[in-house]
Amino acid sequence: GTAFTHELGRSCAREKLTVVSGGARGVDQAAMNGSLDSGGNAVGALANDLIRAVVKGGARQAIQEDRLALFTPYHPNAGFNVGNAMARNKLIYALADAAVVVNSSLAKGGTWAGAIENLKKWKVPLYVRDVNGAHGNKRLIQEGGTAFPAEALNQPSMLLEPISVPE
After folding, report:
1. Predicted TM-score of the model (pTM)
2. For the segment 102-145, what is each residue's pLDDT rounded down to a tens digit?
3. Are 136 and 102 in contact (CB under 8 A)?
4. Edge-to-edge strand list for the sheet holding 42-45
5. E strands along 32-159, which residues?
6. What is the rounded distance in angstroms from the CA atom of residue 167 to the CA atom of residue 155?
7. Which is nearest to 92 in space by CA: 47, 61, 57?
8. What is the DSSP secondary structure assignment for residue 20, as one 8-state letter?
9. pLDDT for 153-167, tens place per residue?
10. CA-to-CA distance for 69 and 91, rounded, in angstroms?
11. Is 22 within 8 Å of 88 (Cβ atoms)?
């Protein structure tokens, strides 16, 4: 999943699409790094540790180059809190024109909760990577998400085409 997400971030950079992410370890960071490593732009809606994040790794340089924006609705020194992470999902979806779920547990966790809330309330087009053994992903597709089209890995702008969203 991490390699897939990094490549998707790189493709977004090539097509001048800004990656919006929660900035968490794993696929969130992979998406942002893929874009930034390829000269693209990213926005991170952080649930914790903004003060640390802005000086970490290549973040400072990308911020100075106006290619990365990091923000939090919480205190900049706030530690991790599950409630904050779940609530920040709203901001990620609000900023996105389309969303991609790379991997979700079945009926638990922040990715699942954010995707289900999006499908019910916000209706941002939700694309879900359809991989064997990913039961959460398969259920999100059943709940109204759209299977991520393989060709979108190299042409993510196609995800911005209108799709029918269940009422």
Report:
1. 0.92
2. 999 999 999 999 999 999 999 999 999 999 889 999 999 999 99
3. no
4. 19-21, 42-45, 68-71
5. 42-45, 68-71, 99-101, 126-128, 146-147
6. 28
7. 47
8. E
9. 999 999 997 655 556
10. 14
11. yes
Tokens of 106: 């079945």
More confident residue, 18 or 166: 18
- CA torsion angle for 29, 8, 167, 82 (degrees, to 10)? -10
| Residues above pLDDT 90, as percent of the chain | 93
Residues 6+ apart with CB under 8 A from 44: 21, 22, 23, 28, 32, 53, 68, 69, 70, 71
Rounded to an integer, what distance in angstroms lies between the CA atom of residue 129 and that of residue 5? 10
Confidence of residue 27 (pLDDT cuts 50, 70, 90): very high
CA nearest neighbour of 47 among 68, 26, 12, 21: 21
Any long-range contacts for 76-79 (C-beta under 8 Å, 24+ apart)? 76/50, 76/51, 77/49, 77/50, 77/51, 78/47, 78/48, 78/49, 78/50, 79/48, 79/49
Q: Match 């996105």 to its residue by tokens.
A: 96
